[in-house]
Amino acid sequence: DLVLGATATASAKFQVIGTTGSASMSGTLTLGNGQTIRPAYGPLTLSYKSAADTWATGLTLQDTTGNVGIGTTGPGAKLDVNGGDLLFSTDGKAILSTAGTTYFKPNSGNTNQVLQLTPLGSATMTGVYLHGQVSTSVGTRLDLLQSGANTIIRNQTLGGGSQGYISLEQDGSTRLRIDTAGNVGIGTTAPLAKLH
Prior knowledge:
Blueprint (H helix, E strand, L loop, with lengths): L1 E3 L9 E3 L27 E8 L2 E8 L6 E3 L8 E3 L20 E3 L10 E4 L7 E8 L5 E9 L2 E9 L7 E5 L2 E6 L5 E3 L10
Parallel strand pairs: 1-2, 5-6
Antiparallel strand pairs: 3-4, 4-5, 7-8, 8-9, 9-10, 10-11, 12-13, 13-14
């Protein structure tokens, strides 16, 4: 055994022991097959050199939860990316959730979902939900759904939100509109009959 800073133990072939200071190396560190890197206590962090003689935490593996943080030392989810974009390879796939509903929000402090993806086998119909909400339960939502063999496009009112029309436009001009009474207008924004 090679031990620096304390008495050898039978638990490892090489040990650096101490409550302060650090160990430095140059070159490559290679671990054997199936071996692990683990801290004695607290989270495991990987730092990068951000300036001369300055290092910043790049990745944190949180103790007790196993959460991974990039750009944050306190990850609040299995993967918490802060301060930058998340880029997926153009020739790969982005799997955001294997079970349950995936939400996209403008920021962590905003409770409104902008985009909601509901997978197959969920209690809610499978589909894409685009939210235009003033709260989590009030506003409007555009749904593109799959229910069995059927496809549904729906303008959904939530809570006390006002019901609006559905419009198809081309270069800013309305070509087709379905109003709140169910009237369909082609070339008009104010249909007066079921088909106008």
